[in-house]
Here is the input.
Amino acid sequence: MARCLPAAPAALLLSCFSLLLGLAAPAGAAAPKPGLLKEASQLRDRALADSDAWQHAWSLTTEVGPRPAGSAGDRAAVTWALTRLAEIGFDEIRPQPVEVSAWERGTAEARIIRPFPQPLVATALGRSVGTPEAGIEAPVVRFENLAALEAAKPEEVRGRIVFIDERMERERDGSGYGPAVQKRTRGPSVAAARGALALVIRSVGTSTHRFAHTGATRYEEGVRPIPAFAISNPDADLLTAQFAAGEEVELYLHSSARNLSPARSANVIADIRGAGKPDEIVIMGAHLDSWDLGTGAQDNATGVAILMETARFIAMMPRRPERTVRIVLYANEERGLDGSRSYTAAALQSEQRHVIGIEADGGAGLIYRFDSGVDEEAFPVIDAMREILAPLGIEGGDNSATGGADLSTLRAEGMPVLSLRHDASEYFDLHHTANDTLDKVDPEALKQAVAAYASVVWIAANVAGDFGATVPAGE
Ligand SMILES: [Zn+2]
Here is the structure.
């Protein structure tokens, strides 16, 4: 209403007039009605007291285990999800077939030859090729970061093993990950283009223990693929110290990793059908696949578990939401977003409109902040959501949320997003390592998460008006 005050610019006044004349419906959502806020706060309190997302995470990590895309564990996870979702009270559950890239880790070995023999804790990077059968034994050249390698002359690199030493910074919002991950995704191609035999990176993680951090890499077209490994931070420290001491460092590397032909997997989609606007979708996304070194507890069994439990509480409400609340458990986030791309391609052909999305893929730390990525017109709804979240210790953030990796393909089409930010200070000690196991998960923190997701999703699924563009684009 403030926009219809006399101080409003001419263009806004025009739209105010057309509203008064009933020429155009308001695109944005008005503040939620008190009854809806009351329902949302009751749902929040019930979820905080009684939810048990931990049980879903226990089941996925204990009864299925690691589930890299295309593996037997991945297929077991799809079956697990279809079975478990059927116990929750959805109106419709279906698998959406997805072709996924497949890769076999095999075994990896890395050890120092010179200045003294010492085994290193190492892991192959996802999608890396293996070494020749006899392994690779060569002198090592160290670079402070990827930019230094990019600036190197081929003669510094040719015939050597490249070691990129760049560290990841520990941050509450996990923002150290994006910059540090560049050396993992691009490093092998940059090193190979300069004639390197193999690449070793300092793990993209913050653990000070001897855990190596895996994660996907990719080879640029036209570049000869070279084997790529990550070593634990303490092992990287050792190499660094040896270089600082002026030693010549030589490594032995062996890996039997290989890329396989594409495999079949599936997104798992489940709907709580909207009572008033069933073709308007509020989508909650989490990836079902995981890396294989641990059991993928925080990446991403807890994300899956939080959303399943959120849906269970929404399904237990005395009435159905106005809009359809949909959970999508995505295939192969880790090695290439295959499930995300398949889902969005189908969504663009659909009659259903994706009104807003939220993704759970940030670990199991307490949620401390709530961000949005919506049109300004929807700010009154975001303000109301913030009020509902405040008693959970969650502060309001900004409007620069981009969604998560799996929702990025819908976001790119214009879909608005919400983002509940988990405290990631300790997440990257575990993420993508053998140490990502269930014992690190605090069941109480999951209760807070379910309370937060359930209350904001309930508001989004019932409030009048949109949050901005919808996917596919509405009228
Ligand atoms: Zn993840």
Summary: Residues 287, 299-300, 333, 361 surround zinc ion (CB under 6 Å). The chain has two domains: 30-96+263-462, 104-259. The domain at 104-259 is CATH 3.50.30.30 (Glucose Oxidase; domain 1).
